[in-house]
Amino acid sequence: MTTTVLPRVTYLNVKYGVASWLLTKDHKRIGILYLIVVAIAFLLGGVFAAGLRIELTTPQGDVVSADTYNRLFTMHGVAMVFFVLIPAVPAILGNFVMPLMIGAKDVAFPRINLLSWYCLVIGFIFTLAAMVFGGVDTGWTFYTPYSSSASNSNVLLTGVGIFIAGFSSILTGLNFAVTIHRMRAPGLTWFRLPLFVWALYATSLVQILATPVIAITLLMLVVERALGFGIFDPRLGGDPVLFQHLFWFYSHPAVYIMILPPMGAISEVIACFSRKNVFGYSFVAFSSLAIAVFGFLVWAHHLFVAGISPYSAMVFSFLSFAVAVPSAVKVFNWTATLYQGAIWWQAPMMWVFGFIGLFLIGGLTGLFLASLGLDVHLHDTYFVVAHFHYIMVGGAIMGFFAGLHYWWPKMTGKMYSNSLATLAALLVFVGFNLTFFPQFILGYLGMPRRYHVYAEEFQVLNVLSSAGASILGVGYTLTASYLIYSMFRGAAAGKNPWRATGLEWQTESPPIPENFSETPIVTEGPNEYSKREIKVA
Amino acid sequence: MPNGVAAQADPHEPATGFGAAGHAHAHHPALQHHFQTLEQQHEASTLGMWIFLVTEVMFFGGLLMAYLLYRVWYPEAWSEGSLELDIALGGFNTVVLIGSSLTMALGVRAAQTGEQKATVRWLLLTIALGLTFLVVKGFEYHHKWELNHIPGPNFSFEGPHAAQVQIFLSLYFALTGLHALHMVIGCVLMGVITWMAHKKRFSPEWYTPVELAGLYWHFVDIVWIFLFPLLYLVDRAHQLS
Amino acid sequence: MAGHISPKSTYYAIFGSLMVLTAITVSIAFVNLGTLNFPVALSIAILKATLVILFFMHVKYSSRLTQLICGVAFFFLFVLFGLTLTDYLSRGWFVAPGGTTAAGTQVTIGPPVEPVEEPAEPRDAPGP
């Protein structure tokens, strides 16, 4: 008598067909949908970056015109900031993993979760349309009055696109905040939450409070440009610096949206691969909240040379120094976690080591820029460019990759090649430093940003930077390749390939649609690793 | 028991994506499967609406910041611009909107006590008052259009501070326009809720949509409570002009 | 699921208060109070909003979390207003040797430079 083995029901095979994905309410599928959009945006942003670096290998403007160059760096910034960095960790990893981590069946509002994905997609389509029609040349910062009156590029389309995409972020933040408040499993008190959840909660506060301000600012820009309303127009007595105040009121906290969730992922990975609790758990948890709150108080450090009053510049400078403290707390605590831990050198941990050093450099150079006197010299130079790429790529993207490599087995049920992953991490680390470290020097020497030409004496450093960019490209391509390959040919991962603690590792890989067959009950804190535990199978 | 059956998932369980434990217990039809209890769902929904209102506060906040700055910089223009607005219509609209908040609160109360017909009546009255507000606003906008006071290429204004009055009116239209958009959305929302109430969907056990719609409606009222003095009452004592 | 049920009389009383406050704010707008007109109007509006929040929106009877959320919204709104105004209100307090009032101005040491005469041509900015 033949018996049929039914394939195990997972969130991937429970229903097939495009409609079952495009109309899904499952947070896990929505996380995968976000991964697809973000990957496309990352590729696009990378292509634009390649265009920039190719032009910058020579001091003359011989590859593209100044106007084209302006459009390239603008679209690079828009794609990377709004469609990669802001959504990546919260909407991909947060969506997939957070409900599992708190023992919930889904987020609080699954349909709103799907709506937020559509907001990102529709916003992305508007932005792509703008790119197809020739792009925007204002810089991703859209400063008025150039963007509102003088530029003849597709400001309206891009502005509308980012406006819509902003709702994706707002709704995700709303959903996560409610989920974390109200849907934790029995026994899961706030101080038993994994640090990734604390990070997502702090991020949601920023998403909720800051994003609406850029929404209204873009709306004001759009009505000024489209209808001739005068709000920032200096010809009527309007103040262009007001736009900058409103823009950066969001865009500074936005960088904390980009960095807090990767920091949370780093906390999880460090604990698992040192086989230790995170040192100073409550300090790390509170530091996430502190960063979220303090991050709202520093925005005018982007306006130091825009014409603001020196006294307010001093206030913002002081506050900008203060916001570095909670970040430093995290770095100290991660380092203390590593100390006397049993380090297990697996791929996710390689990304972590890259993160800690690069985030440190990025963060410290931020302090350089927070000093008024130094900023006068360094503003709008490559020093700033290097600083934020160290944080955004060396920090946020590496943290994202650490989390992606950590939770990939849970998401797909497959393992990737650890040696290829290690190689990719090394390539990215080397390529990254080669690309961006010379830019600190270039900036200090005075090379301005957003120019397609530069003085002859800067060429050597620029060539090094462009060479590094190619290595970076190889590293990312390699990562994408082995990850995709693993989906088809990877070894089965099993429930808990990393022998990690956490509720997400107590359920199948990939999980069943409803996450847990029985609601888990939590009786202990997170990361209760002990040295007696077997670390390698 | 046939061997080879998958160990984890119950093959008899419908693969709906939610509801693992089987539906042996009766539950309220409004309870969604990812929540354990109606109470949890209600708390989550209310929290969600409050957080949404926080985003709305920050959304209007950006416009109010612009208003604040320019009021400080251009007091005369603000005075001239404000005097161009019809205080009688603005005051009438204020009374109408606060009245609609009253009817809304009474509507929520009727839903709380299970008075279904009263709920429908109060909600319909709320919609009527909301539409009245919008009609009056429409008259005001039309009047402004006739006077060429709409900012843009056709703007014209007599006075020494015309340029800054254009900024005032830009903010007037942006603020009241955004508010009116929220009113329109609110009326549509109320229409849906009223229909649901008419279909007897609500009870003292579950009236969450009415409550949430109420919160939204009161928020829109609060915005107007600020917009009215900020826009219509800047310099009625004619100190500056 | 029981929320607090207010008696109808409470709602009518609050409505009445709101009407009185509206009448006050309109009539007091016609009285010349100088610079106090704005803060008075704003205070009355804040009072009206508070009544709506506490009673119509039931915040008086809501959980601590709801009350905290209300507070947080206004706190960050005031951060936006307050910190931005630290810039605008303090402009002009400091005048650098060259006559500029902005932060971040580079001051060169040396003899004064003759200002260059800019021809006053109208700048044609292309429209959207």
Explain this structure.
The complex is a heterotrimer of chains A (537), B (241) and C (128). By secondary structure, chain A is mostly helical. Chain A is built from 16 helices and two strands. Chain A has one domain (25-506): Up-down Bundle (Cytochrome C Oxidase, Chain A), CATH 1.20.210. Chain A has a two-stranded antiparallel ribbon. Chain A starts with 17 loop residues before the first helix and ends in a 45-residue tail after the last strand. The relative contact order of chain A is 0.11. Helices cover 68% and strands 0% of the residues of chain B. Chain B contains six helices and no strands. Chain B is elongated. Chain C has a domain at 8-89. By secondary structure, chain C is mostly helical. In chain C, 53% of the residues lie in helices and 0% in strands. Chains in contact: A-B, A-C, B-C. At the A-B interface, helix 7, helix 8 and helix 9 of A face helix 1 and helix 5 of B.
Summarize the structure.
Chain A contains 16 helices and 2 strands.
- The CATH superfamily label of chain A reads Cytochrome c oxidase-like, subunit I domain
Percent helix of chain A, as a range, is 55-70%
Q: What's the mean pLDDT score of chain B?
A: 89
CATH class (first level) name of chain A:
Mainly Alpha
Oligomer state equals heterotrimer
How would you summarize the topology of this molecule?
The complex is a heterotrimer of chains A (537), B (241) and C (128).
Chain A: H1 18-22, H2 27-55, H3 66-85, H4 88-101, H5 110-132, H6 146-150, H7 155-182, H8 195-227, H9 240-274, H10 281-294, H11 310-338, H12 347-370, H13 372-378, H14 382-412, E1 414-415, H15 418-445, H16 459-489, E2 491-492
Antiparallel strand pairs in A: 1-2
Helix pairs in contact in A: 2-3, 2-4, 2-5, 2-16, 4-7, 4-8, 4-9, 4-14, 5-7, 7-8, 8-9, 8-10, 9-11, 9-12, 9-14, 10-11, 11-12, 12-14, 12-15, 14-15, 15-16
Chain B: H1 38-73, H2 75-83, H3 87-112, H4 116-146, H5 162-198, H6 208-232
Helix pairs in contact in B: 1-5, 1-6, 2-5, 3-4, 3-6, 4-5, 5-6
Chain C: H1 8-29, H2 37-56, H3 64-89
Helix pairs in contact in C: 1-2
